[in-house]
Hints:
- By secondary structure, this protein is of the alpha+beta class.
- The protein contains three helices and five strands.
- The mean pLDDT is 85.
Amino acid sequence: xxxxxxxxxxxxxxxxxxxxxxxxxxxxxxxxxxxxxxxxxxxxxxxxxxxxxxxxxxxxxxxxxxxxxxxxxxxxxxxxxxxxxxxxxxxxxxxxx
Length: 97
């Protein structure tokens, strides 16, 4: 009986920790971008973030004066769980006014 319970709990735990749904994965990605020190170095503190748009290879961050592209590199998964990724910050582009 104990073996059956352990097997059941193991299977259940693996399914619970499977890849996050798209909404939750994108929330995790945006939170990591916003907390990254490279964002703070690229965007001056006086610039508000107006919009964050998902694009094919990552996100575009719009401020009053700049557009910053952050690329997402998804890493290979060794075990079930949330998708692992690295952020690559490209050079900000001045918006012509």
